[in-house]
Amino acid sequence: MNSIQLGKKPLSSMSPTLLIKNGKPFASIETGGMRIIATMALLISNLIDLRMDVQTAIEALRFYNCAEVKLNLESRIPPSTQTAVEKKGHELQIRKPFDLYFGGELSIIINPESGELHGGVDPRRDGIVLGF
Description:
Blueprint: E1 17-21, E2 24-32, H1 36-48, H2 54-59, E3 63-64, E4 71-74, H3 79-87, E5 92-95, E6 104-110, E7 117-121
Parallel strand pairs: 4-5
Antiparallel strand pairs: 1-2, 2-6, 3-4, 6-7
């Protein structure tokens, strides 16, 4: 993994991200863990494509499959959906609800009209968000 060892490069996909909308900052988002890239993509899609508020976007159901044999799903995904995915040939690894396996996010959304800041904290990890 990411242990200290002579001659070894540290593993990181750190990606603090600032989203811009109409030339102005819209969101400051951050995530941690081994699945940073997938988690960040899900959060951005939830915020932009699905127009979720920040807390709903963070708490949304998670899945992950990248160079792994099994498709990892949170157990909150309905059993009927799990069965449908299995019928399509996927082997599943069911993870606990709000499992830190999927990363943990901290985000702030900026209301472009009022300038008001709205923070979101992932129940999958410890943390707080502060904006000023």
